[in-house]
Amino acid sequence: MSLWRAVRIMGVGFSQLSWSLTRHRSLAGACPRAHWFQYWTLDEPEHGRCKTLKRLTNLDMLAGTVVDRQVEYALEQVRAGNPLPPDLVERGLRTWERMLAASRLQARRLLEGQPLPYGAQPLMADYYGQPISDREIERCALKVESSLSGFMNCELGARLIKVHPCRWHAPRSEHDTALVEFQVEGIRIYAQIDFHMERQGHWLVIVDWKSSSRVGTDEGLQLAVCGLWGLDRGFGQDQVHLQAAHLPDCPIWAPKNITELEYDAARSQIVVDHQRESQLTEVRDRKGTPVVYADRAAFPPRPGPVVCAGCKFRAVCPEGQAITQTV
Ligand code: SF4
Questions:
Q1: Kind of pairing between the strands at 187-192 and 179-184
Q2: Mean of all residue pLDDT scores within the chain
Q3: Alpha-carbon Rg for the chain in angstroms
């Protein structure tokens, strides 16, 4: 038996360490095994299924995706010399309906073992056969409606479209995830930049579209990380302006600088997360290349009725299945 086969049987997955907000949340989550399924299964028997399970989403995130795509579409219309689409809200609601219907089909395909089309995001509830109440669907449809209506009527949007699109970020293809990659303290960072515009050497404005009025727990960290990307690109701290745009509130133009203290807090969080994950992993040689390995035993399952019911990876987790079958 080859050494590599032996490694697989031991349940040791490999990947590379990096930092993203999603990874930070996953590491801080209630179940270490869910984090392992999310990031460390490469070459493990579960890898193929984990890769597809990762794409499962929930209603709120799906609504956020619809809003992000429609705002991007509206801005592309302006870039092309057209006015903002007056039917943006209706368009968004039609897309929302379409994505809900597509989720049911995609979940069925997944269950039948068929591959998903690129970019497909089925709902976890559809995949696991959990009922979704009309009230929840209505709540998220309202989120789409109020966010897009807020975008169409907000001062922030009006100010953005007055800036010549040559200052905006480059046009994005349908499958562009708006991810940027850079380094902080030698750690590779991935961050999503929804919208940015800049004048090289003078100013950079970054806007993160939010489909909720509620300020998220990680919002400060998220903005600071976007700001660190600006610093990495050579902008000065006072040249980087950031705004979390809560679209249902019809936001006014309010991009702000971030303080040194906030940047330091973000850097520290990145380093703390990185050290924590490093301590749970080890670097080994794989075909002459140093690779980070994570033993699944270092990421034990912590099952619970609530956490497992909301976990994407239940289908590959015996502990999660056991607990959800007993409740
Ligand atoms: S199903 Fe439960 S125990 Fe298993 S990975 Fe998910 S949260 Fe952890």
A1: antiparallel
A2: 91
A3: 21
Ligand 1: distance of its center to the CA of 119 in Å? 25
Q: In what order do the strands lie in the sheet with 289-295?
A: 12-15, 289-295, 282-286
- What number of other Cβ atoms are within 10 A of residue 296's Cβ? 19
pTM: 0.90
Which alpha helices (H) appear in 80-114, and where do they start and end? 88-111
> For residue 2, is pLDDT > 60?
no
Is 227 touching ligand 1 by the criterion CB < 6 Å? no
Q: Is the CB of 316 under 6 A from ligand 1?
A: no
Strand order in the sheet with 240-246: 195-199, 203-210, 240-246
The answer, yes or no, to whether any atom of ligand 1 lies below 6 A from the CB of 187, is: no
Ligand 1 binding pocket includes 320 (Cβ within 6 Å): yes
Tens of pLDDT, residue by residue over 80-101, are 999 999 999 999 999 999 999 9
